[in-house]
Design a protein that fits this description.
By secondary structure, this protein is α+β, with helices and mostly antiparallel strands. It has four helices and three strands; from the N terminus they run αββααβα.
Amino acid sequence: MIDPEELKRRVVHALADADVEVQDLTGTRDHFEMRVVSSRFAGQSMVDQHQLVYAPLQDWLKTGELHALSLRTFTPEQWKKAQERQTRTP
């Protein structure tokens, strides 16, 4: 079983400016949702952004210890706009 904080640490180590939020979706510590905000995503396709996040997690993905990871990736500008939209939505 994976500690959500360890998931976060690995991604932050790989993407030093990343703001990372991790949620265990099932309580089994193998299905997670992760929101990652990083300036490294600027100009990158969504596939490339996700590959940057998956890279430090490869050992867990290969063994199946990390069974599922839902990703939401944003540049800081995209995240700011997403938050502004949320605050305007009733």
